[in-house]
Write a structure and sequence with these properties.
Structural class: mainly alpha
Number of helices: 21
Distance between the termini: 74 Å
Strand content: 5-15%
Helix content: 40-55%
Amino acid sequence: MSENVRVRFAPSPTGLLHIGGLRTALYNYLFARHHDGEFILRIEDTDQNRYVEGAEEDIIKSLKWAGLGYDEGPDINVEGKYGPYRQSERSEYYQKYAEQLIEEGYAYYAFDTAEEVNDMRERLQKSGNPSPKYDAITRMAMKNSLTLSKDEVDRRLEAGEKYVVRLKVPRRETIRFEDEVRGFVSFESHGLDDQVLLKSDGLPTYHLANVVDDHLMGITHVIRGEEWLSSAPKHILLYEYLGWESPKMAHLPLIMSPEGGKLSKRNADKLGIPVNVRDYIQQRYEPEALVNFLAFLGWSPGDNREVLSLDELISEFSLDRVSKSGAVFNINKLNWFNEQYLRSRLEVDLLPEVKEIIKEYGFDGYSDEFIMQVIKLMKERAQLVNEFVSQGQYFFEAPQAYDTKTRKKAWKDNTGDLVQAYILRLQKMNEDDWEPAKIKDELKNVLAEKEVGFGKLALPTRLAVTGMGFGPDLFQTLELLGKDDVINRLKKAVSELG
RNA sequence: GCCGCGUUCGUCUAGGGGUCCAGGACGCCGCCCUUUCACGGCGGUAGCACGGGUUCAAAUCCCGUACGCGGUACCA
């Protein structure tokens, strides 16, 4: 094990935590735990315009739900050594290092307004430059501390004029670094522009804040999404100019939509894929299942195992087994994982949850014993706990309607008579005899008497009692529902279906 | 457009020169179990993007092409 691993998950609170964000957090977490290192949560709230109230709480709640505990974060400040953990509370650092960069000639003040920069870009575009930049060439025609006299710069600064601090990207330099998942990657500096480091509102951009904080917080490995790969060279440059050793970098493949492209709120909704972790919480996915599924979106242990606990994931995880290409999100597979985890849960442990769901459905007054029976009957057939109630609603109320397909198939002209005969026999049954085998015997008696096959009465009975054409064992279902209820439902069906 | 990254069954992936006429999982199909549906069991379907090299031998190495994705902001 390499010593002293420190990694961080650094989301910006611009909305609910996205499923892709959770995957990034997970990989960081697995890596940290595998190496006995620390996992840190840092909130990157440097864009005041995009800040969303409650987003931080959602991030924290989501991580907790998924079981990804962090060692340091906005709500866990360890000895104040590395904190605070919100970038909005760390302005002094960014200010300080921006100034250091300027003094040492690696950055400069720029006074151009947004419009002026835009004009420059448009002008260049019109004259045939497809990707105009604020760079080594163009900066000499702009208003900045490289072109203005020192007196003029001081005057503007003193007058409180708005400015940004830009990184002075070298004209010709190859920036090469080794990515833990992709190997060596290299960029030419002339393809980069003079990145704004400090915005005119005094807050840093991601690039500066990220580098400063990762260094100050002792981060050893930066594990983040591939969308950051292109800006990595800017970060490498910053580490160099600040005289710091760069942490190791690992850029994770993106999670893709089945329709192509990065999985986004828009294209996912359309396909019925929840994108926010909150949605999975609400739909009562098993957190272990989601985690297991996410772990395998871009990584695998190398053997044929797929259902792995968090502990197993921790001991198996390594960055060199992370794949390089994007992974399409397959909700079907997630549901399969959920099914695996749901089955492995103890029936008693499911009770409180199922009781909650029942309550949400507005049903009331069911004993724990009754609910436990429902759980036993439904457990092997559901993928999601919610289905215990949504697919088994008939345990809690008489069917409101009868499935038309089953009705067409099962309810024939003579069915009413058969059901009527069954009702008569059931009515004569002793309460003490109300058990699956005997209920079934009575049905068989009707069959023998009328000389028809099992399906002729069993399916109509199921339809009458549950409103559906499938479900758990019919006679166990009837037993659980109780004699009175069953007879009432059968009668109702006869009168409604003929 | 430019820059960067990628490409093994429909999807997630194993495999990184011979043991691969490519293995597992999800899905799909069939059979068995079940007088329902599911579960379970068994079997099947389907893939190395393309073209050139290198090599006795290439899914695996190299080059090119195509395609996909990401980036190209005083957003992260």
